[in-house]
Amino acid sequence: MLLDDAALEQSAVVANCAMNRERRLDGYARELGIDITELAGDRWLDLCCGTGRALADAAAVLPETEIVGVDLVDHFVPGTNALRLITASVTTWQPDRPSDLITCVHGLHYVGDKLGLLTRAASWLTEDGQLVANFDAGSVRLPDGTPAGRRLTTALRHAGFTYDSRRRRISIRGHRTIDLPYLYLGADDQAGPNYTGQPAVHSFYDPMG
Predict the structure, then answer these.
(1) Per-residue pLDDT of the chain (209 residues; tens, 9 = 90+)
(2) What does the alpha-carbon distance between residue 34 and residue 77 come to, in Å, rounded to a whole number?
(3) Contact by Cβ (8 Å): 102, 121
(4) In the chain, what is the greatest distance between 2 CA atoms, to the nearest angstrom?
(5) Residue 48 contacts by C-beta under 8 Å, 6 or more apart in sequence?
(6) 39, exposed or middle or buried, with CB in 10 Å at 0-12, 13-18, 19+?
C-alpha cells in the first residue's frame, strides 16, 4: 500500500537520524561537488538540513549570508541563533523570498513527492541562483513498480535540470516554473537500502501524456 505524505512522515525510515544528519560543511563538497562559501550568495537555503551543524559552520565564515535550514525533525545543534532553522515538512513549506543557493544532501531519498519538491525548489531560486541535490532517479517508479527510467531523465533535462546518473546529483540554474508530466501517486517506505546503504523511499508516479 502506498503512503501519502502525512503517513510517510511518520515512518521510522523517514525519521532516521543516522543518515547524514550530523554532516559538517565540508560534506557538501564531497556529496554535492560544490563549495558553499563560493556559491551561497546573499541567501542559502538547505532543505533536509539535519541538525544544522554544517550551517553553523557556514555562518562563522559567511557573516553576510542569510542561512536558512529546514528539517522535519527539530534535533538542531545549540548555539545557532545566527541561523533560521525551521522545523517543517519540505513538501508543504514555502520560503518568504528567493535564494541564491538551494541544497539538499540525501534528503530527497526520504521525500514522497520528489519531483514535486524539485520543481517547487526551482521556483524558489533567484534569476541566477543554483539548486544542487542528491537524487536517485531509480527511486522514481511507475505504477507497476518498474523504474521510470530514461523517459524521466529526458523529461528532467528538457525542463532544464542537469542529472549526473553516476554521481546521482541533480542541479538547475536560474528561477524556473516547471510542470513535469508525472502525477504523484504515493510512496513506499519499504523499498530497502539504496546506493547509500541506508533504507530509502520509492516514489510512484503515473506518467501523463
Answers:
(1) 899 988 999 998 887 655 556 678 988 999 999 999 999 999 999 999 988 999 999 998 999 999 999 999 888 887 666 789 999 999 999 999 999 999 999 999 999 999 999 999 999 999 999 999 999 999 999 999 999 999 999 999 999 999 999 999 999 999 999 999 999 999 999 999 999 998 999 999 999 86
(2) 23
(3) yes
(4) 50
(5) 70, 71, 72, 90, 104, 105, 106, 107, 108, 110, 111
(6) middle
